[in-house]
Amino acid sequence: GAYAPAPVPYGAAELVGTFVQPILDHFADAGTPYVGVLFAGLMLTADGPRLVEYNVRFGDPEAQAILPLLDGDLAAIAVAATQARLADADVMIRPGASCTVVAAAAGYPADPRAGDEVSVPTDEQLDGALLFPAGIADGRTAGGRVLAVTGLGDDLGAARANAYAAIEQVSFAGMQYR
């Protein structure tokens, strides 16, 4: 799963300066400036933040937690990035928080079981949450990460409560989540 915003004792500018800007500078110096999504997966340790991974895509569940908090037009932001006008784009984050919980198939991650019937709540039943199907085909499990729900709320506690209330309405044999 994932949640946002992350209450960490580091400012965004400090983290970007340490983990993102050096990569962007390297590509620019090599004559291949990078335009796109660059997700830096960080782990907080006793010695400070450490880089775990970079992703150059909208990964799930990270994007499923962050994008619902975007207060603006994602397409307009992406176009502005491709036209080197990102500094002029309105990238605003709405107040509140989100929490995404992933439901995985039996046997995940080593050998996820396919073919189990999946029951999901209706949009009306979600109340404060969003549903993101992933490993579902014809109403049955078809992948390891079957789906995710993202709860939204005024704070992380409310978002978490909404996420778990929604995922408790999902069912399939062998369903597992944390």
Write the layout of secondary structure elements.
Elements: E1 2-4, H1 12-29, E2 39-45, E3 48-55, H2 62-66, H3 74-82, E4 97-104, H4 123-126, E5 129-133, E6 136-137, E7 140-141, E8 145-153, H5 156-167
Antiparallel strand pairs: 1-4, 2-3, 4-8, 5-8, 6-7
Most strands sheet: 4 strands, antiparallel
Number of beta-strand segments: 8
How does the overall form come out from the CA principal axes? Answer: globular
Evaluate the radius of gyration: 18 Å
Mean pLDDT: 94
General description of the model:
Helix content is 27%, strand content 25%. The model has no long low-confidence stretch (mean pLDDT 94). The protein is of the alpha+beta class. It has helices spanning 12-29, 62-66, 74-82, 123-126, 156-167; strands spanning 2-4, 39-45, 48-55, 97-104, 129-133, 136-137, 140-141, 145-153. The radius of gyration is 18 Å and the shape is globular.
In short:
27% of the residues lie in helices and 25% in strands. By secondary structure, it is of the alpha+beta class.
Q: Tags for this entry?
A:
178 residues; 8 strands; single chain; 5 helices; four-stranded antiparallel β-sheet; alpha+beta
